[in-house]
Amino acid sequence: MNAHRGHCRCESVVISVSAEPEVSVYCHCDDCCRSTGAPVIAAVGMPKSAIKWETETKLGTYVNGTCTRTFCTTCGTPVAQEHESAPDLMFFYTAFMDEPEKFPPTFHSFEGQQIDWLKLGDDLPRYTRTKVIEA
Ligand SMILES: [Zn+2]
Ligand SMILES: [Zn+2]
């Protein structure tokens, strides 16, 4: 299997993942939007056992409740989030991946927090909170 690669904008943080994502999701929650400055985020849940950190960079982390967010301390790029509810996965922001076009989201989380003017014309399932991830 070809590894998927991801990198921050300064390339201090580079990863490769030798697995397919177990989850690909849009999230509209306030915490995701606030921590990225984006009106919606997309993320891919990758198995931690398949992730290789290619650089020796010190990652910044910020813990908010049950979610830990990781970012590049050099360029500030949001890298990933981890959730206590899915301890085996690391959710990389889809736009952090080198080929985000390969990972179309399959559902929406926290649809009730979607910003009114944001129009996404898909028929994907929309969850009030999030889909339970079967590990
Ligand atoms: Zn960086
Ligand atoms: Zn979120």
Describe this structure in words.
By secondary structure, the protein is mostly beta strands. The chain has one domain: Metal Binding Protein, Guanine Nucleotide Exchange Factor, Chain A, CATH 2.170.150.70. Helix content is 5%, strand content 36%. It is built from one helix and ten strands; from the N terminus they run βββαβββββββ. The chain has one helix spanning 30-36; strands spanning 4-7, 14-17, 23-27, 41-47, 51-53, 59-64, 67-72, 78-83, 89-93, 107-109. Strands 6-7-8-9-4-3-10 form a seven-stranded mixed sheet, with helices on one face. Strand 7 and strand 8 form a beta hairpin. The chain is globular and about 40 Å long. It binds zinc ion (ZN) (2 copies).
Order of H and E elements: EEEHEEEEEEE
Structure ligands:
zinc ion
Number of helices: 1
Overall number of strands: 10
- How are the strands of the largest sheet arranged? 6-7-8-9-4-3-10
How many structural domains in the coordinates? 1
Question: Descriptors for this entry?
Answer:
135 residues, mainly beta, Metal Binding Protein, Guanine Nucleotide Exchange Factor, Chain A, 36% strand
What does the secondary structure layout of this molecule look like, with pairings?
Elements: E1 4-7, E2 14-17, E3 23-27, H1 30-36, E4 41-47, E5 51-53, E6 59-64, E7 67-72, E8 78-83, E9 89-93, E10 107-109
This protein binds zinc ion (2 copies).
One zinc ion is lined by residues 27, 29, 31-32, 110.
